[in-house]
Please model this.
Amino acid sequence: MYNNGTTAVNLNGLKIRYYFTKDGSASLNGVIDWAQVGASNISVALGSTSGTNADSYVELTFNTSAGSIP
Model:
């Protein structure tokens, strides 16, 4: 991610969603193995969706200890 603005952006104000179509009917699992901001500062949620040319999504959110993008 890049911040082209003039002020820092707090990560805890962002949600990142990636939409995809899963193969088959297996259940999904999301794990953060490593992250520069600390894996414990990121939460993973998986969900179903429709109308987006996808049937699933993974969503990443950040807690206040994740910091900001300068």
About this structure: The CA atoms of residues 4 and 70 lie 9 Å apart.
